[in-house]
From TrEMBL:
It comes from Alteromonas aestuariivivens. InterPro entries: 2-oxogl_dehyd_N, 2oxoglutarate_DH_E1, DH_E1, KGD_C_sf, ODO-1/KGD_C, THDP-binding, Transketolase-like_Pyr-bd. Keywords: Glycolysis, Oxidoreductase, Thiamine pyrophosphate. Pfam families: 2-oxogl_dehyd_N (PF16078), E1_dh (PF00676), OxoGdeHyase_C (PF16870), Transket_pyr (PF02779). Its EC number is 1.2.4.2. Residues 597-790 form the Transketolase-like pyrimidine-binding domain. This is 2-oxoglutarate dehydrogenase E1 component. NCBIfam families: 2oxo_dh_E1 (TIGR00239), PRK09404.1 (NF006914), PRK12270.1 (NF008907). GO terms for molecular function: oxoglutarate dehydrogenase (succinyl-transferring) activity; thiamine pyrophosphate binding. It catalyses: N(6)-[(R)-lipoyl]-L-lysyl-[protein] + 2-oxoglutarate + H(+) = N(6)-[(R)-S(8)-succinyldihydrolipoyl]-L-lysyl-[protein] + CO2. It is an enzyme of class 1 (oxidoreductase). Homodimer. Part of the 2-oxoglutarate dehydrogenase (OGDH) complex composed of E1 (2-oxoglutarate dehydrogenase), E2 (dihydrolipoamide succinyltransferase) and E3 (dihydrolipoamide dehydrogenase); the complex contains multiple copies of the three enzymatic components (E1, E2 and E3).
């Protein structure tokens, strides 16, 4: 072979680093089936030598090294290298054709016809031009080997190939998948796209179903617009394809055995989905537009935040649908959906195909809100994986009023965030509903096969403003001039079906008239709707109960010892780290009665009793396995081989499950996930633990919009327990306060519990109460740090066995109540500072009362304790937090109600401060000493 030919072949980019993945892909295909690759490449691979007698199939590295060596040689030195040829075709052009195919796979989406309005100005991509590959139309009649191009034939003329590549990658579908490193996944997508040139045959029945869906979407919006002009409804108009898309997705999922689909979405199109997919009765929606509301349902919420549940008939059986309630914090619903799905999956033996999560995003929101990244990052982790999510973007190319992409993101597509987990992305023109249906099925099949996230970018437009009262021409004049002239998707598709002879023009109009008549009638308009029978959890045992609902929680000392022996046992071969070993030896002494129980032992005993009762436990947090403060060590790490062992999983045969996961470094998404899990699983003790209490700041939207108000707004019960380490130990502003005042400010309508336990017995019975009591409310715990090892913060087995969490604890020293002149009320760690100082002072005229539950305020229990001091007029509330923080301002009205009539109440604590705590230990100690002295000094 001439040197020029050799140089052209070896210097072409197929041997360059940019195409290394492509060469490897061809080689992997060759190993599986030599006939699956082009003859040119088969000759190359056939001629590769064995390495030390080892077959090629077992030594991929050496093969790659062989290629690297060849690539590093000069052209003349490579003269002996094997070169594949194609009869009648120059070698360099054959290579260029393969590069052309690869270019379309990589970048064809950039020339796809995605925008229904035709406003996108796509940059020229030279890689997709024939000339870039030294080819031209003069080569159109030349036949080339097409390698792995999955068209069903080994060779094609360049003209046929060029048309095929454009049909596959540059029409209504733009596929991004070559960023995926897994060869099997890429090949699978290529086969599905290229074998039908992204344009499969659609049956007449499917075409009619698409038209019905578009008719319903359009008819619903027009009906609401006429009946309630100017009312906010966040119309779907322009993205109408979402309705046949979702119905097709659910139908296909049902065929494959899916039993539950959980959907999360923001406002755009939500009312349409509620009525036309989930089967919400239109008359109920119309009543909501008219302002009618059942006062017994709590505060309620706006229409476009509402959730709904129903069953949907499919050829594979009924599928339970759940649309999650969602506030205006848009993307925050994604991890909530993931958590709900995880709970449902675990009830169904973790068969990912049984439960399908679907999240629907806005284009500006998916690119702009950080919780999206957090949720993607969680998607394949051990504690949060759900077998992949189908993510749909309603891409109307504009946020509230911002349509310039340089203002909304720094990437070409709003979906580029999905590439962080190598999710395939299918952009599709929403005015081509058959293409939409094709990518929907493709996305579902990919998710079910590979158990990974997949994204559909439904490129559409917004016919009205952000809401129907907005004037969009003010900020998007060119876009809305185009929209006014653009026919609705229903009309475009109806005209297409008429032209194809599938229907006649009058059929389309009759379909629309029938739909409007159904809306007038007010009945369900979804043929597939069925009464709910497929949901997998029963909340009825937890309905209608109050805080004082009776429950039996006593436990014998013998049972505690039995459980204690189980949770301090581990295999002899499991070597513990020295400090952990000491901790476990101490725990064995506690069970034997030789030591009092500390916090970690009492907490672990609570978990042991809960799983022994048959309830499950799920705990997540950034260091939950060992505990941020080295106190829990529920997961034991073998120092020999790094294997793990959890004694709590070995309490008894048939016990409840327990999972403790160290979470990703996120508060917002992780806590939202746990909220979603707890709303779908009432029998499990679900716990989220902050690394430090103030880190809960990162999850504030979850507290505000879901946990504190979800029951009042949406009737959603939730038993999530939140552990927030809290206490002033001189560690500075960021590691002191869990912002107790924020949680107390949100207290109303008996929405949750706020507790500050101060003894091991209290945490033991508080956690058990959360499961055993037949009601489900969130539990906010200001959990300790220094109290985990405080010498006074201990309990006996007998203290635990009474089974009662005491909302108020009175004086524990033997003081004569008649001699008491001042009573100090407090919560948490400061109690021990007060107690130690009082004992040091040998004071007998100051009593100390602990409030272990600040909300709901235990008025009756407090009255029983206060009765001993009815003669005392001097009452003090003492806290570590600054005066404008902590419980003083938020709970002061409760304190006034609790003290005797005519008594005065004063404050002892830090002065008001913008910062939660000082940053200097010396100043902290000075302040702590001063507030304790102030509380104990009778004026």
């Amino acid at each position: 072979m001439q040197e020029s030919v050799m140089k052209a072949w070896w210097d072409s980019s197929h041997m360059a680093g940019g195409n290394a993945a492509y060469v490897e892909e061809l080689y992997e295909a060759y190993l599986e089936n030599p006939q699956s690759v082009a003859e040119t490449w088969r000759q190359v691979f056939d001629s590769l030598p064995k390495v030390d007698g080892v077959e090629l199939e077992s030594n991929h590295t050496s093969i790659r090294d062989q290629f690297r060596k060849l690539a590093s040689l000069g052209p003349m030195a490579r003269m002996g290298a094997p070169v594949a040829t194609t009869t009648g075709v120059s070698d360099d052009k054959q290579v260029k054709v393969l590069q052309l195919i690869n270019a379309y796979r990589f970048r064809g989406h950039q020339h796809a016809n995605l925008d229904p309005l035709g406003l996108w100005k796509q940059e020229r991509v030279r890689d997709l031009e024939l000339s870039h590959h030294s080819l031209s139309e003069q080569d159109f009649d030349t036949v080339f080997n097409v390698g792995s191009y999955a068209i069903g034939q080994e060779t094609m003329s360049l003209g046929e190939l060029f048309k095929s590549l454009n049909r596959t990658y540059c029409e209504s579908i733009g596929a991004e998948y070559m960023h995926i490193t897994d060869t099997e996944q890429k090949r699978w997508i290529q086969q599905r796209l290229e074998s039908v040139q992204a344009d499969p045959t659609i049956s007449r029945e499917d075409k009619l179903n698409i038209l019905k869906g578009l008719t319903a979407a359009d008819g619903m919006e027009k009906y609401l617009g006429a009946k309630f002009p100017g009312a906010k409804r966040f119309s779907l108009e322009g993205g109408d394809a979402l309705i046949p898309m979702l119905k097709g997705l659910i139908t296909e999922a049902g065929k494959g055995g899916t039993k539950e689909v959980v959907i999360g979405m923001a406002h755009r199109g939500r009312l349409n989905v509620l009525v036309n997919v989930l089967g919400k009765n239109p008359s109920v929606l119309f009543d909501e537009f008219s302002g009618k509301h059942d006062e017994s349902l709590g505060s309620g919420d706006v229409k476009y935040h509402a959730g709904f549940s129903s069953d949907f008939a499919t050829p594979g059986g009924n599928v339970h649908l759940a649309l999650a309630f969602n506030p205006s914090h848009l993307e925050i619903v994604n991890p909530v959906v993931m958590g709900s799905v995880r709970a449902r999956l675990e009830r169904r033996n973790n068969d990912a195909n049984m439960v399908l999560p679907v999240t629907i995003h806005g284009d500006s929101a998916i690119a702009g809100q950080g919780v999206v990244q957090e949720t993607f990052n969680m998607s394949e982790t051990r504690g949060f994986a759900v077998g992949g999510t189908v993510r749909i973007v309603i891409n109307n190319q504009v946020g509230f009023t911002t349509s310039k992409t340089e203002d909304t993101r720094s990437t070409q597509y709003c979906t580029d965030i999905a590439k962080m987990v190598q999710a395939p992305i299918f952009h599709v023109n929403s005015d081509d509903p058959e293409a939409v249906l094709f990518v929907t099925k493709l996305a579902l099949d990919y998710r079910n096969k590979f158990k990974k996230d997949v994204v559909i970018d439904l490129v559409c437009y917004r016919r009205h403003g952000h809401n129907e009262a907005d004037e969009p021409n003010a900020t998007q004049p060119l876009m809305y001039q185009k929209i006014k002239k653009h026919p609705v998707p229903r009309q475009i598709y109806a005209d297409q079906l008429v032209a194809e002879g599938v229907i006649e023009a009058r059929d389309s109009e009759k379909m629309l008239d029938d739909y409007r008549a159904a809306l007038d009638h007010g009945a369900c308009v979804v043929e597939e709707w069925r009464p709910m029978t497929e949901h997998s959890v029963d909340w009825s045992p937890f309905l209608g109960h109050d805080w004082d609902a009776p429950y039996d929680s006593a436990i014998s000392v013998e049972k505690l010892k039995e459980l204690g022996e189980k949770i301090t046992s581990y295999p002899e071969s499991h070597k513990l780290q020295s400090r952990v070993n000491k901790l476990y030896q101490d725990r064995k002494a506690m069970i034997a009665g030789d030591k009092l129980l500390d916090w970690g032992m009492a907490e672990t005993l609570a978990y042991a009793d809960i799983v022994d009762r048959g309830n499950a436990i799920r705990m997540t947090g950034q260091d939950s396995g060992r505990g941020t403060f080295f106190h829990r060590h529920a997961v034991l790490h073998n120092q020999t081989d790094a294997s793990t062992y959890m004694p709590l999983k070995h309490v008894r045969e048939g016990q409840g499950d327990i999972d403790i996961y160290d979470s990703v470094l996120s508060e917002e998404a992780v806590m939202a996930f746990e909220y979603g899990y707890a709303t779908a699983e009432p029998t499990c003790l679900t716990i989220w633990e902050a690394q430090f209490g103030d880190f809960a700041n990162g999850a504030q939207v979850v507290f505000d919009q879901f946990l504190s108000s979800g029951e009042a707004k949406w009737g959603r019960l939730c038993g999530l327990t939140v552990l927030l380490p809290h206490g002033y130990e001189g560690q500075g502003p960021e590691h002191s306060s869990a912002r107790l005042e924020r949680f107390l400010q949100l207290c109303a309508d008996h929405n949750w519990q706020v507790c500050i336990p101060s003894t091991p017995a209290q945490v033991f019975n508080m956690l058990r109460r959360q499961v055993i009591r037949p009601m489900r409310k969130p539990l906010i715990v200001m959990s300790p740090k220094s109290l985990l090892r405080h010498p006074l913060a201990t309990s006996s087995l007998e203290d635990l066995s009474d089974g009662v969490f005491h909302n108020v604890i009175g004086e524990i020293d033997e003081l004569d109540p008649k001699k008491v002149k001042r009573v100090v009320m407090c919560s948490g760690k400061v109690y021990y500072d007060l107690l130690e100082q009082r004992r040091k002072n040998e004071q007998t005229d100051v009593a100390i009362i602990r409030l272990e539950q600040l909300y709901p305020f235990p008025q009756e229990e407090c009255a029983q304790v206060v009765a001993n001091y009815s003669h005392v007029k001097d009452w003090v509330w003492c806290q570590e937090e600054p005066q404008n923080q902590g419980a003083w301002y938020s709970s002061q009205h409760h304190f006034w109600q609790a003290i005797p009539e005519g008594a005065k109440l004063t404050y002892a604590g830090r002065q008001a401060s913008a910062s939660p705590a000082v940053g200097y230990v010396s100043v902290h100690n000075q302040q702590q000493k001063a507030l304790v002295e102030d509380a104990l000094t009778i004026k």
